[in-house]
Amino acid sequence: MTVILLRHGVSTSNTARTLAGRAPGVELTERGVEQAAAVADRLATLPIEHIASSPLLRCQRTVGPLAAKLGLEPEHDERLIEVDYGDWTGRPIAELLTEPLWRVVQTHASGAVFPGGEGLAQVQQRAVAAVRDIETTLAAKAGRDVLWVACAHGDVIKSILADALGLHLDSFQRIAVEPASISVVRYGTHGPSVWKFNDTGADLSALAAAAAPTPTPGGEVPTAASADNGNAGHRDSA
Fold it and tell me: Low complexity compositional bias: what residue ranges (predicted)?
């Protein structure tokens, strides 16, 4: 069984440099809409048979064009939803950088619990369980391998990838997952194997960023243009 992990496109929270979390009404930007269309064109040629998605609007908007091309109805799965950042939801990233918990999130993610929200260990548990459960259901129904898509958020996808790579959750900040990127995990009888991660196609501009990116929970890497604009190290809430 093979899952394509798709992160939503650039959102209004990304450009505002706030932590969107589960706040309602966070839309894709114009760039995010373009990314969703490009992802649809790129993936629609594959024999994808199922689409699961976080119920949040920015993920729905991202998978919409692909679902339309494939003639599929996305299944909204609460276990793929963004991290519940609790009291941090909606706050500016620059402000959160001064919080003692920020460093815990970077270096000891397994012990990080957001005030009034959930812990990153809980996030990994529910996200991996979602992927495994969907895999089992699809395999039982089809009786063969199935290629499918799960659209989610930065921290959620990074936690799934860390599990697939056999990394401790405390190391998941080493994984970059940019908006509209795809990562591919194949689950076999002897365990998972990661075929791709943070694949955004032919655009390699992030590799030419003028400033080294600051590690962020979302995992995005600034492009050369964003670095020039002083945005290096910003995080997307998801």
Answer: 209-225
